[in-house]
Structures are given as structure tokens and as C-alpha cells.
Design goal:
- By secondary structure, this protein is of the alpha/beta class.
- The chain folds into 2 domains: about 55-85 and about 285-410, no CATH class; about 85-240, no CATH class.
- The chain has helices spanning about 1-25, 30-45, 80-115, 155-170, 170-185, 190-210, 215-225, 245-250, 260-280, 315-330, 335-340, 375-380; strands spanning about 60-65, 70, 120, 125-130, 135-140, 140-145, 235-240, 345-355, 360-365, 390, 395-410.
- The chain is elongated, with a radius of gyration of 29 Å.
- The two termini are about 35 Å apart.
- The relative contact order is 0.17.
């Protein structure tokens, strides 16, 4: 899970830096909106995308390792580490809970305004007139209008037109999407930059629509005049609650020419590179099945080896490498505190693949026994140094191992 979150963060950082450096000053607002939404979704999907056949050079070979036994007397006490992990997990859920409560609270305010206000049906949307202290805003197909605002007929028309554009463009769907991501990834600062940029794009689009019917100077005065017109809500598209200076700058900015479209085209290779690299780095680790892998071999000329026995050869080298691997596991593994306290013992089976480059991937639990035993085994396997990859007919071979680990409580 931690690795998945890290991969997502890497994708989002790269995508957002590209946006900020090359696209954020362009007036192709629809393309910018599409880019932000698409890269958010792409960042979520890339780490779990299966690797295509052309990306994999090698085949599988499954090796059954002998069962190793972990007794309480042999294990290192991992209480402190497990406690640290528990604190991180609890911290994550506390933060997510806070953001979820904030989301529900904002939704509740909107529902209360909808319940107490006066509804007026229009063509394609609704107006809810309220007397509460809030800026004009829209939420899906509803425009919430504060009738206490001192607006002229022309100003009232432009405000309504602004919100109608939000409604017609479906901006509330974008906000709902980004709010859900904010709840899940509240700890990630890049999601807040995405959120801010997406909201600004919404306002640029609505402003551009209004400017087709009024002058930039008159509309700018309207924005400034209603800048402090009441409270705002995180789930809504508000008339003035965004970067006013930046909005006025974009309103008066010269429209981007056709040559600026080359920026979007030139970004495609960078995005394509991420589409290739991220799934290969992740390589399905714990997230997808091996649908695209070639059939397993019955034998390999050279098996993967745990490092440290390079000065030996033949059977002696293989035995030494196996001994080093088992010694590494025994040295680093702990009998989980939860399993000890609950009296859990038995054999858990974990599978993993030694890749063409010697890295460990596709860690998977074939037989769990609970109490954190399989998690502890996977933790130790993730600590493995890079192994010397196996070869068959001179080509790298992916080797799949099945490792049974018996946890036994000594009397």
C-alpha cells in the first residue's frame, strides 16, 4: 500500500510540474481542465496497470523453497516497529476521518440551504433563493442566490450567467472527484495544488463565457465589488472565492495562439514515458495477476543467487547462496506480537518473483494464518538486497519462488 501511494505521488508530482511550467499560463482552459483531470486519473491507474508483453523480456520458473521455521526463541522482538506502523495507520485514518467529516459538514450546509430556500425552475437548472450570508454559488444543476446582495439588474444577470456556465460544464463533478481524492490522500500536498488549479480553471471558463456578453472592465468591477459578499463552501463553485488577481489577469490576457498547442503535443512523450516506466517499476507488485507472462520453464541453466558467494562455483555456490538467503530471513524476521498474544502458529506461504534485474516483485500471500505473520514475512522479503538474476539460454529469466514459513510458539 505504501509503495502504491508513493508511485501515485511520483506520477502526480511529475504531471503537475509539467502543467505548472508549460500549460498553466495558456488560455486553452478546456484542454487544461482535461489535462488536470486525466493526469489525476492516470496517476491512480499507472501503478496497477498490467505490463504489456513487449515490456517483459524473460519467462517464469517456479521454485518451491524448503519450509523454514520461526520460533519465538529465534525471532527478534518487533514490537517497536509494529507499534510505529500502527501509529502511522491510525494517523492516516484519523486524518481521513477528519476530512470526511469536513466533507459531510459542507454537504449538510448545502442541503440545509436547499431545504430552506425558495426554488425557481429554469430551463436546464434551478435557482434557490436564500437569505443566508453566502456568496452566489452553484452545486450541480442548482444556483444558490443570496437575495440580500445589493446587485443591479445587469450585475445579477452576469452572476447568474457565470453560475449557469459552471452548471452547463459540469464543474461540480470535477469538485466531487477532487474532494474524494483529498479525503483519501489528505497527507499529500500535491493534491491541494491540483485542487487549487482545477478550481481556477473552472473560474477562467466561467469568466470567459460571461465576457462574451460584457466588457472586461465592467465584469472586473463586479468581481471586486462582490469579493467579500459572504461565506463560502468547499464543495461549491463560488462567484468570487478564488484568486481574483489571477482571474483578472487571465481575462485581459491575449488568447493563446495555435503555436501554443505544440506545448500539449510536446508533453505527450513525457506522459507516454511514465505510462511505460511506472508499470514496469511496479511490475504488478501485489496489484495484478500475471496475465501477460510467458509459460513457465521446467528448468533454468542459472538460478538466481543471493549475493555474497561469487567466489565459488557450481553446486557449492548454489548451496552458499541458499544458506545466505535463509540466514538473512532468520536474522531479520520477528514473531509478530499480535500472533504471540493470540497464540497463533502455523505455516504461511508467500510467493515472490526474482526479476530479470535481480529485484523482488509480485509479493503475494498464498496461505495466510493471521496475526501479522504473512505481513512480517513480506516485510523481510522487501528488505532483500538485489539478487543475481537467473538465466536460461543466455537470456534473463523471471523466477517465481514459493516460500513456506512456519511460525511456532515454543513451550
Amino acid at each position: 500500500m505504501i509503495e502504491y501511494i508513493f508511485q501515485i505521488s511520483v506520477c502526480w508530482v511529475v504531471f503537475y510540474v509539467l502543467y505548472f511550467c508549460f500549460l498553466s499560463r495558456e488560455t486553452y482552459f478546456h484542454l487544461n481542465r482535461l489535462y488536470l483531470l486525466a493526469t489525476l486519473a492516470l496517476g491512480l491507474m499507472l501503478p496497477i496497470m498490467p505490463v504489456s508483453p513487449g515490456m517483459i523480456t524473460g519467462t517464469d520458473l517456479t521454485i518451491q523453497l524448503e519450509e523454514i521455521t520461526i520460533g519465538i526463541s529465534k525471532a527478534i522482538d518487533g514490537t517497536k516497529e509494529h507499534n510505529s506502523i500502527s501509529i502511522l495507520i491510525w494517523g492516516y485514518f484519523v486524518g481521513m476521518g477528519f476530512m470526511l467529516i469536513r466533507f459531510i459538514y459542507g454537504l449538510g450546509i448545502i442541503l440545509r440551504l436547499a431545504k430552506e430556500g425558495k426554488w425557481i425552475e429554469k430551463r436546464g437548472f434551478y435557482i434557490v433563493e436564500t437569505t443566508k450570508d453566502h456568496t452566489p454559488f452553484s452545486f450541480f444543476n442548482i444556483y444558490f442566490k443570496n437575495i440580500n446582495l445589493n446587485a443591479s439588474v445587469e450585475e445579477d444577470y452576469n452572476i447568474e450567467l457565470h453560475e449557469k456556465i459552471h452548471i452547463r460544464e459540469g464543474h461540480s463533478f470535477d469538485i466531487l472527484f477532487i474532494e474524494i481524492l483529498t479525503i483519501l490522500f489528505w497527507f499529500n500536498p500535491i493534491i491541494y495544488l491540483y485542487k487549487k488549479s482545477l478550481r481556477n480553471i473552472h473560474e477562467y471558463l466561467a469568466d470567459a463565457g460571461v465576457l462574451k456578453n460584457t466588457s472586461a472592465s465592467a465584469y472586473g468591477r463586479l468581481l471586486i465589488g462582490f469579493q467579500s459578499s459572504g461565506a463560502s463552501l468547499g464543495l461549491a463553485n463560488h462567484f468570487t472565492k478564488s484568486q481574483l488577481k489571477k482571474r483578472i489577469e487571465m481575462m485581459t490576457k491575449e488568447t493563446s495562439g495555435l503555436t501554443s498547442l505544440t506545448r500539449y503535443i510536446l508533453l505527450l512523450p513525457a506522459i507516454f514515458a511514465l505510462v511505460i516506466v511506472i508499470p514496469m517499476q511496479t511490475n504488478g507488485r501485489n496489484f495484478h495477476s500475471k496475465t501477460f507472462l510467458q509459460p513457465a520453464l521446467k528448468h533454468a541453466e542459472e538460478m538466481p543467487r543471493f549475493p555474497g558467494c561469487e567466489d565459488l562455483s557450481g553446486k557449492e555456490r548454489e548451496d552458499c547462496a541458499l544458506k545466505n538467503m535463509l540466514s538473512f530471513i532468520y536474522t531479520n524476521i520477528s514473531y509478530p506480537k499480535e500472533a504471540r498474544e493470540q497464540g497463533i502458529q502455523g505455516t504461511t506461504i508467500v510467493q515472490f518473483v526474482v526479476e530479470n534485474d535481480g529485484s523482488i516483485s509480485e509479493l503475494d500471500v498464498a496461505r495466510p494464518i493471521g496475526g501479522g505473520c504473512e505481513e512480517e514475512t513480506i516485510r523481510v522479503l522487501r528488505l532483500f538486497p538485489k539478487m543475481i538474476p537467473g538465466k536460461h539460454k543466455g537470456k534473463p529469466v523471471r523466477i517465481k519462488y514459493t516460500l513456506p514459513v512456519k511460525f511456532r510458539l515454543d513451550k
